[in-house]
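=== Structure Prediction Worksheet ===
Name of assembly: unnamed complex
Input type: mixed (protein and possibly other molecules)
Chain count: two
Listed entries:
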Amino acid sequence: MKVVIVGAVAGGMSAATRLRRLGPEHEIVVFERGSEVSYANCGLPYHVGGVIPDRRDLLLQTPQSLRARFDLDVRVRSEVVAIDRQAQTVRVRDLDAGTEYLETWDRLVLSPGAAPFVPDLPGIERALTLRSVADADRLTALLREKRPATAVVVGGGFIGLETAENLHRHGLQVTVVELDSQVLAPIDPELAALVHAELRRHGVGLVLGAGVAKVLPDTVELSDGQVLPADLVVLAIGVRPETRLATQAGLDLGPRGGIAVDESMRTSDPHIYAVGDAVEKTDRLDGSSIPVPLANTANRQGRLVADVIAGRPARLTGRIGTAVVRVFDLTVAVTGWNEKRLRAAGRVHQAVHTHPLSHAGYYPGAVPMSLKVLFDPESGAILGAQGVGGEGVDKRIDVLAVALRAGLSAEDLADLELAYAPQYGSAKDPVNMLGYIAENIRTGMTRTVQWHEITDRVAAGAHLLDVRTAAEHAAGCIPGSLNIPVDDLPGRLADLPDGELIVYCQLGMRGHTATSLLTGTGHRVANLDGGYRTWSVATAELAPMLVGRSVAGT
Amino acid sequence: MKVVIVGAVAGGMSAATRLRRLGPEHEIVVFERGSEVSYANCGLPYHVGGVIPDRRDLLLQTPQSLRARFDLDVRVRSEVVAIDRQAQTVRVRDLDAGTEYLETWDRLVLSPGAAPFVPDLPGIERALTLRSVADADRLTALLREKRPATAVVVGGGFIGLETAENLHRHGLQVTVVELDSQVLAPIDPELAALVHAELRRHGVGLVLGAGVAKVLPDTVELSDGQVLPADLVVLAIGVRPETRLATQAGLDLGPRGGIAVDESMRTSDPHIYAVGDAVEKTDRLDGSSIPVPLANTANRQGRLVADVIAGRPARLTGRIGTAVVRVFDLTVAVTGWNEKRLRAAGRVHQAVHTHPLSHAGYYPGAVPMSLKVLFDPESGAILGAQGVGGEGVDKRIDVLAVALRAGLSAEDLADLELAYAPQYGSAKDPVNMLGYIAENIRTGMTRTVQWHEITDRVAAGAHLLDVRTAAEHAAGCIPGSLNIPVDDLPGRLADLPDGELIVYCQLGMRGHTATSLLTGTGHRVANLDGGYRTWSVATAELAPMLVGRSVAGT
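=== Predicted Assembly ===
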């Protein structure tokens, strides 16, 4: 059987090599429009920044190495421009020779990827993108030859922030412009606020809630009229699935504009498959169509489509979309749904915020992180998790991703046996603590209040009780709160006002203790989830907009 | 209700504070024989080594702080010397005053911990142990005052190796003496061999397969007659549950010598509970009794027993025993069963060895690790996993521990969505790769051979085929192997001998490719699991003894 694969990066190359490992019988031809195959897409920003100085390190294979080891016929600079489904052929343009020819196929695998979205704006031709090795070469050449001093990165997503950090490494004054009120859409605003602070701490400018109106020769003009210096402009406002070929061939697209495939990666034509960033995936939680443009999912699909073509049983299960990005000294990781999406979908959910240390506090080098887990308060099912901080964030999100995927409940997290030694975690690991808190909430032992609910609750007559020390209180508190340190509380019950009490401490632990101690005293009590730290970070820049939203609806 | 708790470290203190958080109604009295409560046991070796210079950092609470915050009556230097079950009292000795008194209880919780095992040997009085703050103080004082130049650490378990490393930090010439043929019994010998190399690389002496015969004034004489210089002797040959009180009170012990408890931590007396290192736990895999002397399990049990006493539904599920230890630059982590135990129990199992990098190879700083996973070849159930290497070993073992606990199969590992960016992992994460390999084996696509099976297979007529480059082959190979680099293989099929072929490469990947390419050529082919690296590490020191065992039985 002759299998033709369009696209020689993650999904396409995984399909090709897996198919060969499954047997010598297939003829396998791979077409790649670019000059490189199987390159490390995710390394491009770091090559630009000089972290990966040698460009060759990004090139994991060559057509020659693939021919030698896997007997693959890989043709670069070869663009598939049309598919004839009836005749089972593709029309291929040799980009160097300028000629075209037909190639037959028995099975066709499309892995065309996605392209950076470029909006139609005046002057946009000057803006660069960063998706391919050719893009990285252009950007690197420009940095070397023009020595730009200022840059605007449009878009505060994963690639945007990685690019901003790497331009900053070259000494450029960089400003990130993001239309939304926060960077990194997959996480919720109170965690994104930590990333905002990190960018500013490193001298990266950040403009939120504004888009680009025009690109001028040395500047960028924003939708709010601001003009930013910009010797260099990089666009990173997301990617769009490459569906031109599929559309021309009459294959079905999905509701999100990607190529529609079934669990076996089969398109609406039973002889044509598609994998990678160009196709829509199924969300594990609600079965909806989602993009998930991630290299690991592309690799997984590529391997799987080879199995399917070889007649092995294989199907892709729903995706939860785990991801991680480094932003200067922070690690930001996420799995499953965030609260914004749960709220928009009207799904009942409970959030828990904690601020644990990466490892035992008594062992040197422990650094803080902020974790948030979302679960269904009725079933206990884990719906999503996110973390921002130093060392160990990726580990906790990976653990939570497996728990989510395996269908463990939030309380089950309490009983996970995780590797503990003081360099690696705590005897009660941050993930165990999330489970303990979830169990306290689900069994009704503790009631919690979220940071964005404070304004409404106080307006409705609740009193704020700060159980931190007097010194902590003096250094910053929620306006209008009474301060009684937790250890003084038993002796000062008479000082408490009537009505609902919202207790808070710095991180949530002492607040939990105080809340427990006050249970049975006749007060209606709730603990501020995530403590003053979550509240203060979240409200510092988000309060105006989000408290407004809370009043309107939540 | 009056609850008396014996022991104020992990299990006891977790029980006390949780019980108070559940309500103000109980009177809670905690007796502690030592001078300190709630101290960081796991930090003791690092305090001795000066990594945690301030002793106060190890003391997480004081009786005063516990009284203030949790209204706990904690009495240190107070040893419970007898239990009267009929009268529901304990007899308490005030170690400072030298007096004794009775204290009544409605519920009694025993958390006496475990004590270092001290064998009855000539001169043993000179040997120190490292279990309590008092032990650490003694060791620290001796290091300061006597300035010893040499030390023998008896026992190559977790505490023994941590102690050896920390004595080495003080400049002592340290030798570890271990009766078994390997250190760190929870891992298998071919991974322990990496730890042996790490110890030797740092100049720590290692004597395996020998015990201590006598402790002399400046030396230690071993069972094999060797005499080692030893200004200092530290005993770390394991702990024994503290069961004196329980035995005296007539409570049942389990088959492993610990206090027997049910899922609710109840002993054979319905009003007496026990938690922590003194009690036996249930193995999740086969339901047998196991010790699991780990701080996180003690904490978990302490919290749980408080829930039970307060009338909340709670039960402890079977343990899988995840653990981690740092040995110089190596992280060693393990979860579930190892192969030695599976073999001894006669359980059918399949091992997979890999040697992945901590993160994408093209991003700077990637370091290698060795992972091993064990699964049931019939059901696919994960039975255990272990890892030795640099950064990221703890993360992979935690992920595998959750997968094991959640009942995922080895193939399910292929589909886990783990956080990927080049600083954190690979687009095919090491855990995904384990899943891919397991799936290849379970579906019959690939056959593998283990390092310890080579001798037998060659004796039975199999031929060894090294598919690495000529340079790699020349630098070291399995004796008697033919070298045909994988990329030359298709053109050199005629050079292959008849009969079974055992293919190997450096790490296992090229071997897998070669094995796949040779399928269909009529050869019976198997790939050496873990490649030359696993074989060479394992056989370098283990071959004489283990290949011998292999011939005899495996």
